Every structure is written in C-alpha cells, then in structure tokens.
Amino acid sequence: MAAKKNMPSKKKASAKIARAKNRPKPYLRIVRSIKAVTARVMHRVHTFLLRRPHRSFRFTSRRDYKRSLELPGYWSFTAHVVKTLLGNWRLFGGLALVYLGVTIVVNGVGQQESYSAIVSSLRASSGDLFKGDFGTVAEAGLLLAKSVSTGLTPKVSDAQTVIGSLTVVFAWLATVWALRNTLAGYKPRLRDALYNSGSPVLSTLLVSFIAILQLLPLALALIVYTAANNSGVLESGATAMLVWLGILLFALLSLYWAAATFISLVIITLPGMYPMEAIRAAGDLVMGRRLRVLYRLIWLIGIVVAVWVLIMIPIILFDDWLKRLLPAVQWLPIVPLSILSLSSISLVFTSSYIYLLYRGIVDDESPPA
User: Fold this and answer.
1) Domains of the chain, residue spans
2) Taken in order 132, 136, 138, 143, is the CA torsion positive or negative?
3) In whole angstroms, what is the distance from residue 94 CA to residue 320 CA?
4) Cβ–Cβ under 8 Å, residues 175 and 352
5) Lowest CB count within 10 Å: 52, 127, 302, 315, which one?
6) 226-261 in b/e burial notation, b at 16+ Cβ within 10 A?
7) Burial code of 189-205, b = ≥16 C-beta within 10 A, e = fewer?
8) Considering the entire predicted model, what is its pTM?
9) How many CB atoms lie within 10 A of CB 281?
C-alpha cells in the first residue's frame, strides 16, 4: 500500500506529459524574444516619426514647418538676462566668487612667469609688426588670444583637470537651480544653491558627453585645417577655399546638433529626468525652431567674445604701462587674475542666458511643426 501511495497517479503523469509537450522549445523562445524586441523598436520608431513629421531628403513646405517662437530681440533679450542677474546680484555674484575661489584653489591663479614669457616671445618674433597707432591694441589682442588658448598654468595634472571640469558642471547646476527658484518667486540663498543643486550631476555629465560627441565634426575640421596649414596646402587659392568650405560645413553640423543639446542641459536638471528623455524633449522643443535657437547661441558667443575684448585689452594695456612705470611690481598677476575673474562671470552669464532662452521656448506652447 505504501508503494502505491508514493507512485504518482495517472492523472499527474498525463499532466506532466502535456506540459512538456506544450512547453516551447529553446529556439522558439529565442524567436519570440526577437519578435518582442523588434516590436518595441518599431513602436519607438513609429512614435518618433509621429513626433517628428519631417523626413530626410524630402522637401517640407514652409506652411508645414513654420513654428512660432515669441522672444524679445537680440539686444532686448540680452538686456533681460543682465537685468535678471543684476536684480539678484548677491546670489549670482556669490556663485561667481565661489567658482573663482574653487578654481584658484584647484589650479592656482595662473603663473605670471608664463604670461611674461608669452609677452617676451610675441615681442621677439613680431619685429615691426605692432608699430603704429593701433599696434599696441593689436598686440594686446594677440596676447589675450594666446593667453586664453594656451593657458597660464602649464603643468596641470589629470586630477586638476577632472576637478576643474566638475567645478564647471556644479557651477552650471547651481546657476540653473538659482534662476529656476528665483523666477518661481522664491528667494534662495547662496548656500541653498550650492547644497541643493548637485543631484543631477551624473545625468548632466552623460548629456555633456553626448554634446562632446556632437562637437567631433568641429574638432575633425580643426585637425584638417592644422594639417593643411602645416603642409602648405592652403597656399593655393582654390585648395584653401575648399578646405575652408569643408571646415565651415563641419562646424555648422556640430552647431546644428548642439543647438538642442544645450537646451537638454537645462531639461536634465528637472527632477526625475533621465539623459535620453532630456535629449528627446529638447529635440521636440527646438523642432521647427532650431535655426532660430542656433542664431541665439551664436549671438551669445559673439556677446561673450566682444565683452572679453572690450574688458581685457584695456587691462593688458594697463598692465604693460604699470609694469614699465614700476618694474618692482612685475610679480603682480593682474592679467591672469582678470582672466579667471572674467571666466567666472562669463560662466554665470552663459548659464543664465541659456536657461532663460529655454524658458522662452517652453512658454511658447505652439504645436510641433
């Protein structure tokens, strides 16, 4: 009797056999998995095509892509950004000072010896180039370009580079956080901006990495220009024209891609936002407006460059006059400290400009073009 109890019944045995027959074979499970993945991909492609009605290499009528973007004029919008920052000068001035202080702690002020070496090298190699009424101004402009492009701290370790990059990211996040809360009617303090703005740092780094990838065509164009210049190819007029045309096209391609990515750097600071969601949302926002957003970003670059020229060239001229008059103050790093200070102010202004541009795009609720 005990043996009969331990033996499975005929019904249980038949059920096991039926389940074994109905169980899908391994290759069928693989096929079903591939079909499921393909269905998800096709659904995402279909959703993307619904959101982006334009097609590559197909002409779109103007009435189908016209999309409103009600923003003030270029000068009015820039004045609005400046007015917003000056209206909260304690907060944003404090952010600039904090960034300046961290940069000095991490990388130093910049070596006055390096700047003096640049001055000596330029004057030794220029000969009579900078003589005349505007020679000193041209010399100061070249000194500014050389100082900014090469840097005045020649020995920077990898750790200093990483910390400096993270400092820029945190300064961006703190400025955006402070602006968002200020425009919402709150009165945030500097401490709040520094402590509460860093949560999306990893997502911001990932979006920044995507932006760097989008700037690769521009980097490739610069490499091609350097190689062509060193090999003497640019001496021929037709060849130089073709090289410059290629550089211009690569630069426009990078800027065209980056126009949406700069907006996604603001979107990623929203709570619960993920990098690819921010990229998609930014692409949807600038669709039908990309060129107008790109023009605003080019205007921003022009404003920043003009301010640097108007401020730094007189400082360089004053530094040269002062040290000719008083050789005892040759050690005083007037130009390196001025470059760092203006870099801090430029970072806060650029972050504010891009955020307010994003707010202007979001406030215009026109449907996708």
Assistant:
1) 75-363
2) positive
3) 30
4) yes
5) 127
6) eebeeeeeeeeeeeeeebeeebeebeebbbebbbbb
7) ebebbbeebbebbebbe
8) 0.80
9) 18
